[in-house]
Specification:
Mean pLDDT of chain A: 89
Helix content of chain B: 55-70%
Strand order of the largest sheet of chain A: 6-7-8-3-9-10
Distance between the termini of chain A: 49 Å
Largest sheet of chain B: 2 strands, antiparallel
Structural class of chain A: alpha/beta
Strand content of chain B: under 5%
Shape of chain B: globular
CATH class of the largest domain in chain A: Alpha Beta
Strand order of the largest sheet of chain B: 1-2
Order of helices and strands of chain A: EEEHEEHEHHHHEHEHEEHHHH
Number of strands of chain B: 2
CATH architecture of the largest domain in chain A: 3-Layer(aba) Sandwich
Low-confidence stretches of chain B: 1-9
CATH superfamily of the largest domain in chain A: P-loop containing nucleotide triphosphate hydrolases
Oligomer: heterodimer
Number of helices of chain B: 12
Radius of gyration of chain B: 23 Å
Number of domains of chain A: 2
Number of domains of chain B: 2
Strand content of chain A: 15-25%
Mean pLDDT of chain B: 85
CATH topology of the largest domain in chain A: Rossmann fold
Radius of gyration of chain A: 21 Å
Chain lengths: 289, 264
């Protein structure tokens, strides 16, 4: 369980122009939850997630992982990094080894896993992201396609066996297929490995049907928090943080405005289609569009 | 952000002062003149005069005096080594000796002279970079080097390289910071053990950094070609450098110093 309590962060606090990136953010993440973090660029999402595995230290406030303050003096950093895996934005930019195997093994090696354990860890991590160990382990990471590189980079984090996985815009810059593949893999990871997942994203569409809870960040503060259905109803607030509701929700809202009895909290195209079907059937009974 | 604090490249401080307002070409030329002159100065009085002149420059530039002095720490090691080497190695009239170490009268003099010259050199060049924006600096360099193009010297290309290098310092610093964090998230430790271990631990940082730097260079070249960049020939400027009577005053001040140095 992760507890973030009154977290504030100011960059360059002593300079003439301090930059307040986070302000009194508090929330709790239960084990096994899938959390989506949404906000426009520069709202503090990345700063927030970097606090959770102690890449940044709070200016004030605390981050507790399993009841322990990870910023307490003497708290072992590697313990935090082992428990909480953080996949950066464009993680493929951090690949550096000569082979995929060596790159994925970099994290586990730093955590002190011995040489004999590495092949098992690497092959498991690669299969979790859908890459065959035999086909990929001896290739150079620089010879792979963009989507493959990203999956190797994510495998590099998974090989460290984290219990919490944080991803900072994992689908940015991927084509629809690569995007779908990553999202699908994440859901399987959660079901099969019981991982807790926090995902930062710009796209409400990809979070809505998947996550248990959404956190909406605006200018360094937590603006809204709730289930996707609760959040999607507050389209005005979403508009205020530069997020538009997905087109299918907008469609249902328009229908509601016109007086049709539809629910407007659909989370996916499929749910929307079901609603539309109801309206169409209603028309058959004498309703008017 | 942490890294950018330690590295003082392109340490331009935008203030509104008389020195800031001078033409970059004039400033560069004067710094060159001063750098040459200091090697002809070999008396205490002369050195005193030069440093008084430098102090005047710092005061006129409105740069906080202590900030300026703190900037000098960068070359403290070089100055100290120069001083010590000269102190012990220059032969002459012995004034002090202990075992194999001897200090001569000439050694003391030369050691003081050399370290003062180094300090002065660094002082005037710092004053130049602190008061001149990188763009103006490269622009000025190009113009000062312009006569050399007659003998085939690539002045424009050199200035362009300087501009690009300066432009990408902050970008690469941010990039380095991001990669450092990403590797730390993978359990990397950037400060362990001896030199060899340290060098090895930098590989996960340097390889991605170089890869991205090459990518950027490639993209920049494409972007420049897409906008028909063909080198410096027949290129005009949006901001022309202009000299006015202030620059004349600066030149006269330096000339005055030179004359004074002749007298004392």
């Amino acid at each position: 369980m992760i507890i973030v309590k009154d977290l504030s962060h100011t960059y360059q606090p002593d300079s003439p122009r301090p930059c307040r990136a986070l302000h009194n953010v508090s929330f709790t993440v239960e084990n096994g939850e899938y959390i989506g973090i949404v906000g426009r660029s520069g709202s503090g999402k990345t700063t927030l997630v970097q606090h959770i595995n102690r890449l940044l230290r709070p200016t004030s406030g605390a981050v507790l992982v399993d009841g322990q303050d990870i910023n307490a003096p003497g708290f072992p950093v590697k313990e935090v990094r082992r428990k909480i895996g953080l996949v950066f934005q464009y993680p493929e930019h951090q690949l550096f080894e000569e082979t995929v195997f060596e790159d994925v093994a970099f994290g586990p090696r730093n955590l002190g896993y011995s040489g004999s354990e590495l092949p098992g860890l690497v092959s498991e991590a690669l299969s979790l992201v859908g890459l065959s160990f035999d086909r990929y382990h001896s290739r150079s990471p620089f010879s792979l396609s963009g989507g493959e590189k990203r999956r190797v980079a994510i495998a590099g984090i998974l090989a460290m066996k984290p219990r919490v996985l944080i991803l900072d815009e994992p689908t940015a810059g991927l084509d629809p297929q690569g995007r779908e593949a990553i999202l699908h893999r994440l859901e399987r990871l959660r079901v099969e490995q019981g991982l807790t997942i926090l995902m930062v994203s710009h796209y409400l569409e990809e979070l809505l049907p998947r996550v248990d809870r959404l956190l909406i960040i605006k200018e360094g503060s937590l603006l809204l928090s709730g289930t996707p259905r609760d959040i999607i109803k507050q389209s005005r607030e979403l508009h205020g943080v530069g997020m538009e509701v997905p087109q299918f929700v907008a469609l249902l809202q328009r229908l509601e405005e016109k007086g049709h009895p539809v629910r407007t909290d659909a989370l996916s195209v499929r749910e929307t289609v079901e609603e539309l079907m109801k309206v169409m059937k209603g028309k058959g009974k004498g309703g008017a569009i | 952000m942490e890294l950018s604090k330690q590295i003082l490249i392109g340490q331009y401080i935008p203030l509104d002062s008389w020195i800031h307002s001078l033409d970059a070409r004039v400033k560069i030329a004067l710094v060159l003149v001063l750098s040459v002159i200091i090697f002809f100065v070999d008396t205490g009085k002369g050195l005193g005069l030069c440093f008084a002149f430098l102090l005047l420059g710092v005061l006129l530039s409105r740069i906080p005096f202590f900030y300026f002095v703190r900037g000098m720490r960068v070359i403290a090691f070089l100055v100290l080594t120069t001083a010590l080497l000269n102190l012990f190695l220059v032969k002459g009239e012995t004034v002090w000796s202990w075992q194999f170490l001897t200090i001569s009268k000439e050694g003391v003099q030369i050691s003081l002279l050399m370290s003062s010259r180094l300090l002065f050199l660094f002082g005037v060049t710092s004053l130049l970079t602190l008061t001149t924006s990188p763009i103006a600096l490269t622009d000025g360099t190009e113009r000062v080097l312009f006569p050399l193009t007659l003998v085939g010297f690539p002045a424009h290309e050199l200035a362009l390289m300087m501009t690009i290098a300066l432009r990408f310092v902050p970008t690469l610093l941010l990039e380095a910071e991001k990669i450092t964090k990403a590797q730390m998230a993978r359990g990397a430790d950037f400060a362990p053990g001896g030199l060899a271990q340290k060098a090895k631990s930098l590989v996960p940082l340097l390889v991605p950094l170089f890869v991205s730097a090459f990518h950027r260079a490639d993209e920049l070249a494409t972007a420049m070609e897409a906008r028909c960049y063909r080198g410096g020939k027949n290129r005009t400027r949006m901001k022309e450098l202009r000299s006015d009577y202030n620059d004349l005053v600066a030149v006269l001040l330096v000339l005055g110093l030179v004359c004074l140095l002749q007298v004392v």
